[in-house]
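# nightly structure sweep
# worker-07 picked up a monomer target from the shared queue
# config: single-sequence mode, recycle default, output format = structure tokens
# input follows
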Amino acid sequence: MNEKTKLLLFTGSYATAEESGVQVFAFDGEAGGTLERLATAEGLTNPTFVNVDPSGRKLYAIGEKPNGTGGKEGEVITFAIDPETGKLSELQRIQTMPSEGTGQSTTCNINRDAKNEHLVVCSYHGGSVGLLSLDQDGLPVALTDTAQHTGQGATPGQDRPHPHSAIFSPDGRFLFVSDLGLDLIRCYRIHADAGTFEAIGDTPLHAGAGPRHFVFHPDGKSAYVINELDSTVTSFLYDAAEGTLKTAVTVSTLPEGQGADQNSCAEIAFSKDGRYLYGSNRGHDSIVQYAVNPQTAGLTLVEHVSTRGGHPRHFSVTPDGAYLIVANRDGNNLVVFSLDQGSGRLSFTGHTAELSKPVCVMPAVFPA
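# output follows
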């Protein structure tokens, strides 16, 4: 970061309402990747995923609350961000995915479109995806549509749908939802004026894959999904005009000879230049690195690096591409690695931060 900007990290975690479920850190790359805790937010139950709007100076955190009849449902809490101090000021809470009776419609993922018109949330337990409209001030207005998935997959853990993430295409025309329970990636079009989803088509994964998180290559011509259940990554060539994916290859996230029965996968992300792809192994507790052939969507294993903590639930590459920060849920820490711009290899910086059960870490650049 140069002298005119500052990088803040926002974390979400498993937490009770009395605990600090959301935390804010200042990150100093010029000092070798140091972390300084600036602020926390309490009063949220399990704010496991967050979305940051640096231009609007807002943070959106998912949460959960009782529905009054023995079940649980999702909510979104919006905060104003003070970039100088990192302080978060709660602006609003809004129900996202209502549930009935003892049902559970809590959410596991939140994303926002580039035009700042909508939020999208995924309900893993409810098997559905929700669309919320945003007003001109960036505040959620209402849930305008819900897409309910149906069916089941091949393994006992896939007895029903489990949407786990929703990612917009680079041009914003399509939304891709990875359903861990159905072994597929479903493509939607969002009709902004009507505030509705339109299902366009499905891309099937191999049986028992469990697709979790999905990412596009920076050039927009290929895409990649990390499969939680069988510890693999599947790549696709992407047709931007039609919004379709053509399966290219599937590779293991584990060292040769290492079984997947004691491992599951979580996050996937690119280096800034798109030459390298990274994924997290929970159980093996490592980050796997691949070299990428963007023309073919081919993947070549480079190395595995220990995350220095248990159950790496999420990680992010800093906007300048110089660092990768891992959130180890069971290690109760953030761990900072430097990222070599040439080789893409990771090196532990010696810098960590302690926090309880982190689930995601989101960097954002603000004016200093």
